[in-house]
Design brief:
Elements (H helix, E strand, L loop, with lengths): L13 H20 L3 E2 L5 E3 H7 L5 H6 L1 E4 L5 E4 L4 H10 L2 H4 L4 E10 L11 E10 L4 H17 L5 E7 L3 H16 L7 H9 L10 H8 L10 H16 L5 E2 L13 E7 L11 E6 L2 H4 L7 E7 H10 L12 E6 L4 H13 L4 E2 L7 H10 L4 E6 H6 L1 E6 L5 E5 L3 H9 L17 H4 L3
Parallel strand pairs: 1-5, 7-8, 12-13, 12-14
Antiparallel strand pairs: 2-4, 3-4, 5-6, 6-11, 7-9, 9-10, 10-11, 14-15, 15-16
This protein binds histidyl-adenosine monophosphate.
Length: 446
């Protein structure tokens, strides 16, 4: 039998693994610039965390969760998103009491949704996201949006489209819900089965319906703007004015309500154009949530956050050739010339690794030709060649595999020699430009 991966999942290796690691590192570094700390919540949660947190009327909870009974007959769910689980972790660990507020947490990892697999849509996918909990303000909302944009620009996106909206506070939403209920009740017979259910569960969800004939009806639905309380209206425009002051372009999209139940006030999505005209959907979605912490048993604290789909980001950056330069090759391939120097080459390889250089040696006697082939396959920048003659003299040959230039180096000065070879060239004798980071061997793992 030929086992394939489960439908909607795929194996990540080689170039894609390098790219996802790179994307994660840039986004994590951005979050740390904004003083966020990492949280690693479990993949499994009791189902209630999502049914109460993410919300009974969301498509995720209604149709898309990987839920099963464990051997103790408890219903558990593989997270379809992080926010409810992160808030559960904040409440379980009473982080709101022991840590300074706002709690600023970022996370990365897989999420699972039983959706129809298609371009940019998987059943197992990876999210990077953040949650800031315990500061309820238009400024915190704006900072969250700005950080998401900043992270994506750091990755190399040139043009992003930010869609933003407000769905108001509880009072605004209950007035809006009543207006939507009476509007959709008059049209429901012509709408899809899902919308019948949405009408009784939460008519806001109808605004997300993707069925073409329903979308026509949705176009004529009342807009949130007419139902916003004064406080929500003021808050939203404060957020927008911060974005204006910082020159962040946005489009107010009054049909954007987001598909998860915990949102209140500001919600947003970020899209990026595909070089090949493909539609991957949003690369980032998020917003403010007023009642979630309390809903999951904690104090009355609000939060704001976003999550990004790493596979969609990777696909868009790759199409635009923005990841072509991420280096994945090793620094050095150590080549023992003859079986008698295998052991010394092994030690030398370890020494180079201790100096912070990634390297490999064949661990068996090979001819020079196959060793150069292996070095090329590993993407090595340099070959470090050692034979008995060299070892007797305390030297080795360092060969730049791209420039084909070769130089004898003294093994007693290994750190200095490697640092000089790997330092970016600036025309100076010492090979280091002013302000360049210190070379590896002088700073790391000595
Ligand atoms: P979401 O909009 O459901 O929000 O997901 C965030 C991002 O995850 C989407 O914009 C998309 O890039 C990616 N994504 C979602 N589903 C899939 C899929 N099936 N395949 C590939 N990528 C996907 C949330 O998850 C909220 N927890 C965001 C949030 C955090 N709101 C407040 N804090």
């Amino acid at each position: 039998m030929d086992y394939a991966p489960v439908k909607g999942t795929h194996d990540v290796y080689g170039k894609e693994a390098d790219e996802l690691r790179y994307i994660t590192s840039v986004l994590s570094a951005t979050a740390e610039l904004y003083a966020y700390k990492e949280i690693i919540p479990p993949v499994l949660e009791y189902t209630e965390v999502f049914s109460r947190g993410t919300g009974a009327s969301s498509d995720i909870v209604r149709k898309e969760m990987y839920t099963f009974s464990d051997k103790g007959d408890r219903s558990v769910t593989m997270r379809p998103e992080f926010t409810a689980g992160v808030v559960r972790a904040v409440v379980s660990n009473k982080l709101y009491a022991t840590e300074d507020l706002p709690l600023k947490l970022y996370y990365v990892g897989p999420a699972f949704r039983y959706e129809r697999p298609q371009l940019g849509r998987f059943r197992q996918f990876n999210q990077f996201g953040v949650e800031a909990i315990g500061l309820d303000s238009a400024k915190a909302d704006a900072e969250c949006v700005i950080m998401a944009m900043q992270g994506l620009y750091m990755l190399g996106f040139k043009k992003l489209s930010l869609k933003i909206n407000t769905i108001g506070d509880d009072a605004s939403r209950s007035a809006y819900r009543a207006a939507l209920t009476s509007y959709f009740a008059a049209h429901i017979d012509a709408m899809c089965e899902d919308c019948h259910e949405r009408l009784s569960l939460n008519p806001l969800r109808i605004l997300d319906c993707k069925v073409a004939k329903d979308q026509e009806i949705v176009k004529g639905a009342p807009k949130i703007k007419g139902y916003l309380s004064e406080a929500s209206d003021k808050r939203f425009y404060e957020t927008l004015s911060i974005l204006n002051d910082l020159g962040v372009d946005y489009e107010i999209d009054d049909s954007l309500v987001r598909g998860l139940d915990y949102y209140s006030e500001m919600v947003f999505e970020i899209h990026a154009a595909s070089a090949e005209g493909a539609d991957y959907g949003a690369i980032c979605g998020g917003g403010h949530y007023g009642g979630l912490v309390k809903e999951l048993g904690g104090p009355d604290l609000a939060g704001v956050g976003f999550a990004m789909g790493l596979e969609r980001i990777d696909a868009l950056l790759s199409e635009g050739h923005l990841l072509d330069k991420i280096a994945s090759g090793i620094d050095l391939y150590v080549m023992p010339v003859g079986a008698e120097v295998l052991e010394e080459a092994f030690k030398l390889t370890e020494q180079c690794r201790m100096l912070g250089y990634s390297c490999e040696t064949p661990l068996q006697a090979l001819k020079m030709g196959p060793m150069f082939k292996k070095a090329e396959k590993r993407g090595a920048r340099f070959a470090l060649i050692v034979g008995q003659d060299e070892l007797d003299k305390g030297v080795a040959q360092l060969k730049d595999l791209a420039a084909k230039a070769q130089k004898e180096i003294r093994l007693a000065d290994l750190a200095k020699e490697l640092d000089a070879a790997f330092a970016p060239y600036d025309g100076d004798e010492d090979g280091c430009a002013e302000g360049d980071p210190a070379p590896k061997g002088e700073t790391e793992k000595k």
